[in-house]
Structure formats: C-alpha cells, structure tokens
Design goal:
Strand content: 15-25%
Number of helices: 12
Oligomer: single chain
Distance between the termini: 70 Å
Shape: elongated
Structural class: alpha+beta
Helix content: 40-55%
Largest sheet: 5 strands, antiparallel
Order of helices and strands: HHEEEEEEEEHHHHHHHHHH
Length: 319
C-alpha cells in the first residue's frame, strides 16, 4: 500500500478505504480525518473528510448511542431498535428492509423506567447524517462511515510558493537569510543526538558510512585543560560502600560528569522557567547521559572498568 502511494503516486484518497479496512480497531478509539490539498477552479484548497466508526448497536452511522438511559440511569437499557425506512434506489449498507434506513428509534427496556417521574419509557431517535458507509471496510457489525468532504481555502501554500519565487530571484545571501528566518534551527547537540539515534536503523553500508563521517567531522567539545586522568582521580568516590556492587556507566557518569550534568540542568530549567527545581534534575541528567559525546562515553567506560577492577581507593580501604 505504501508503494502505491509513495512510489507509484496513487492518490491517497483512492487507497484510504482499503487502509481503513485494515484498521478496524482504530475506530473504537477515535475518528479519522483525511486532509489533502486539492486545486478547484485554480484555487488551492484543503479537502477534509471525516471517517467515523459505525457499529450496528453502539454507533449507527458514526453517531454514538448513550451508554445508559438518561431518565432511569440503567445501563445496557436499549431494546431492539426500530428502523424507519424510505424508498430509495441507493440503499443504505446497514439496511435490512427493502428500503433505505433513514432513522433508528431506541426505547429503554427497563420496565420501571419513568415510573418515579410518572413518565413513559425513555425513547429517542438517531437520524442518518449526510454520508455513506464504506463497503470495502465493512464487517458483520462494524463499518466506517464517510462524511461529505469539506473544502477550506489554503493560505499557506500560495504564500510559501510566492516566498520561494522571491528567494529564487534574490541574491544568494538574501535567499539564505530568508530561509534562516523562515525556519528555526535545532540546537547542535540535539541534531547530533538525532543523527546518532537513527544511525542504528540504517542498513545500507554507504549511508551508514556517510552518516558516520558527518558525525565524526563535527568537532568535540573543547578540552577544559584538565586531563582525563586528573578528572577521574578527582571524581573517584572515597566511600568504600560505593564499590559494594558492580558499577555501571550511569553510576560513574554521575560522579565523573557531575559538573556537565549540573550545567545542562541549569540550562534546561532556565528554558522551562522552573529554576532551582530539584524534581527536574534527574530527568535532565538522564537526557545528558543518553546524548553524551563519544569522548565522554569513552571516558566514563574507562573509569567504570577501572573502578570495578580496583575498588575503593587505598586510603578508604585502610580506614
């Protein structure tokens, strides 16, 4: 199905009913709105079509039936519905009579319904809205009900086209500046983390090599003037109890890269406007840990292996 739309350029509206027939469970949770651009009389518009789940008992034509009677409060209270039909050559897909069903009438089957209020049993009707049942997405009791499409004038497409033409005729410097203003660039660290995450899903050797070259070409953070050995020595805990269990990378990173985690936490809390809130600290530390550079990762792994191998410092063991 994806090949028909993405490769062979078949209209999504042509294959959409078939897609819905493969997603019967989706309608139990939500309706589906299909939005596609369309050119009508030279005007670019947005065509919206709503598909709702239609069930013979709970939502005929996509109209939900109340779960309980609003008069007596009983649940599962609706008796056998009564269909009102009308003679029509275009017969409704859910009709069981010779005519097309235009309305269903429901009556509460609880015998004492309305007795307290001295009213007859509660009764209501559901009238068929404009639209039709999609037959190729229909099962025994369920189907998808397609409402008539609505068209809205699209303002964004002509504006973007006009802006593109301006950029094409303008000087390279002006066009570059306009593109920079139109889109907000992602932070460099976030872009690198996204690239590193999706690298694992690439199967083509050339694509993987190209991505690895891009990630490798990006300069690492500038050294702080302190050697990794000095950083490890200063960060190494003196408490012997810290080494009772085997340490993992997260345990070591919290000690070895505490300053980097604190700086990242302050930066993120300033963006959120929740400065000095301790409840965000662990989450931000985890974000930094999951996206740390290859240099930091190597440093943490080496310190982890060393600390697990040697245990607590000699002065801590002597105490």
């Amino acid at each position: 199905m994806a090949e028909l739309v993405a490769i062979e350029q078949l209209s999504i509206r042509t294959v959409f009913p078939t897609l819905l027939s493969m997603s019967g469970g989706l309608g139990q949770h939500t309706s589906v709105i299909l939005m596609t651009p369309v050119n009508i009389d030279g005007c670019c518009k947005l065509e919206l079509t709503t598909f709702a789940r239609a069930h013979t008992q709970t939502s005929p034509w996509g109209v939900p039936i109340p779960a309980q009677c609003p008069q007596c409060g009983s649940t599962k209270s609706w008796g056998e519905r009564v269909a009102v039909t009308v003679s029509d050559e275009n017969r409704d897909a859910h009709a069981s009579a010779q005519g097309s069903v235009c309305q269903y009438i429901y009556t509460c089957k609880y015998t004492n319904c309305g007795s307290t209020q001295k009213l007859p049993c509660y009764k209501f009707s559901v009238t068929k809205p404009p639209g039709s049942i999609i037959n190729n997405a229909r099962t025994k009791n369920c189907a998808w009900f397609k409402s008539p499409s609505t068209h809205f004038v699209s303002q964004s497409l002509p504006d973007s086209t006009q802006g593109k033409r301006k950029n094409e005729t303008a000087s390279p410097g002006t066009a570059k500046k306009a593109r920079k203003q139109d889109s907000e660039d992602l932070p460099k660290g976030l872009k690198k983390a996204i690239r590193r995450y999706y690298l694992q899903f690439l199967t083509d050797t050339d694509d993987r090599r190209a991505e690895q070259e891009v990630l490798g070409d990006e300069p690492e953070e500038e050294p702080s003037g302190v050697s990794p050995e000095d950083r490890e020595l200063a960060a190494r805990p003196k408490d012997a109890g810290f080494y009772k269990k085997e340490l993992n990378a997260w345990d070591v990173a919290q000690k070895l890269s505490k300053q980097e985690m604190d700086d990242y936490d302050k930066e993120q809390q300033q963006k959120k406007g929740v400065q000095h809130s301790i409840k965000y600290r662990t989450g931000h530390a985890r974000e930094w840990f999951n996206n740390m550079t290859s240099a930091h990762q190597k440093e943490v792994e080496e310190a982890r292996d060393k600390w697990n191998r040697e245990g607590a410092p000699a002065e801590a063991q002597a105490m």
